[in-house]
Amino acid sequence: MHRIAPTPSGYLHVGNAANFAANALLAEGGSLLLRIDDLDRQRFRREYLEDVFDVLHWLGIEWTHGPKDAEDFERHWSQDHRMPMYKTALDQLLTCAPTQIFACPCSRKELAEGEHVHGCLRGHIAFDRAGVAWRVDTRGTALHQTMAWFAVRKKDGRPSYQLACTVDDFHYGITECARGEDLRDSTAAQAMLSDLLGYPPLRERIRFVHHPLMCVNGQKLSKSQGAAAVRDSGLTPAAFFSEARAWLRAADDA
Ligand SMILES: [Zn+2]
């Protein structure tokens, strides 16, 4: 099973469209899930959700699993429907990895200063206390440099992106995934979570292709071009597929 997993927290940009093309190419002749990651309901807007379907139709991408439209998404496929599954996974983490998960009320500023001043790492904070995040003790791993203490549950009690993505990829039996190279650390965090949850090793289950940022005619798009809405970019669907093909060829050669 392959997946396209956009987040409806803004209009899609050209980088998203090329990533969709890459995953559609990987899935050719097989199963493709449209998984819209709407954990962040604060930034969610209906028009962003509609935009996902519009862009997929414009690119000519057909998916075999997932919502057929915005209505179907809200009714059956929103991540809100999978909250019980995420809750089970969080409980499982406390059972299976009690020494590696800790509750933490630290502010962003306190974390930036590097010390858990509330005794979080010594287990001084109860997991059921209001307003605490649940974090992973990353000491001793390479992730500690880039994603120290990444969260599995946010302070509002909702699962983090890393937790939900790891659980969803396992739940849906994802086998291959193209994602931007900016998500390499996320892949490493999810591999760690997968182990803590007792799932089979992530990298044995899923082949990740980390691709560069979108280039057109060999030129990297500037940040403003990169953020241009897909259909205002002046690019054709074929241009996105040609970029995606180049990424996949480079990944095969690597
Ligand atoms: Zn802390």
Give a quick precis of the structure.
This protein is of the alpha/beta class and 254 residues long. 43% of the residues lie in helices and 12% in strands. It contains 11 helices and 9 strands.
Give a written overview of the molecule:
With 254 residues, the chain is an alpha/beta fold. It has two domains: 2-77 and 212-253, Rossmann fold (3-Layer(aba) Sandwich); 84-153, no CATH class. 43% of the residues lie in helices and 12% in strands. The protein has helices at residues 14-27, 46-59, 70-77, 83-96, 108-113, 143-146, 161-171, 184-196, 202-205, 223-226, 237-253, and strands at 2-4, 32-34, 101-104, 133-136, 151-153, 176-180, 207-211, 215-216, 219-220. It has a three-stranded antiparallel β-sheet. A two-stranded parallel ribbon has the order 1-2. Helix 7 (161-171) packs across helix 8. It is globular. The mean pLDDT is 93. The structure holds zinc ion. Zinc ion (ZN) binds next to loops.
Record the SSE blueprint.
Elements: E1 2-4, H1 14-27, E2 32-34, H2 46-59, H3 70-77, H4 83-96, E3 101-104, H5 108-113, E4 133-136, H6 143-146, E5 151-153, H7 161-171, E6 176-180, H8 184-196, H9 202-205, E7 207-211, E8 215-216, E9 219-220, H10 223-226, H11 237-253
Parallel strand pairs: 1-2, 6-7
Antiparallel strand pairs: 3-4, 4-5, 8-9
Helix pairs in contact: 1-11, 7-8
The structure holds zinc ion (ZN).
